[in-house]
Amino acid sequence: MPNAKIDAVQFFNDKYRELVNEKAGKADSERESFDGYIKRSLRLNSADDWGILCASMDVIDDSLLGIENFLRFGIDGPTKYGDMGEKYIRLYGALNATYLQQQAVISLFKISNTDSPKSAEERINSLLIRTIRHKIGAHAVDYENKHEDVTESFVPVRFTLGGMACSYYNNKTLQQETVNLQEAIAEHLDLMATLYATLYEKSIRTIYKSNPEKKELLMRNVFDGKAKLSGDIVVRSDCSDAIFTTLIISPLPE
């Protein structure tokens, strides 16, 4: 089943890659070193940021494949063998795929000098899926509860693992919580696409500040990506006209 949020994240990652690759392709080693050129042309803080930028885009691509697979097949996986080991691997893999994607977006925010990177990071830190990742996918035995100033430990409840459901047990408070992973990942993807739209738009305005025609052309991508995130179908003709259609599926009459 198509996922508008995944499509939107992929769209912005592809368009951002096109933007930076176009600039990188114009490097002239006879006039200027690549490091100096790429730092200047992309307005980077350091030439070393180029490697981080490329790695971040690749991580977003790779993690998106994992997230898409998880949303299709859930914790059980496509084979439906009911293997408990596979369920744990898929659970931990999905949690860490979202975390890697979040960290990559944070890196891109800092590299591109997008406004309010701290605010973006705070929004990411507030995601439910990030909290779940910390509790059962990374710091299961030493989770720092900063609100209560205590260290807690968590463990997934094995018999609840299946589909998109996951319950976990707090060994300190003796409380059990259940999370809908599909909803939590959807929240994550929505924020990733929203933040990516912000940093992509900022990069366009900065890099092509003195080229209004190019800036206007690329700004259409921002508009299209946001439309995709809303679930609209975007079609552009050679004249760059756009058609947006929202699909509404009604149940068949009984």
From TrEMBL:
Protein's recorded name: Uncharacterized protein
Superkingdom, natural source: Bacteria
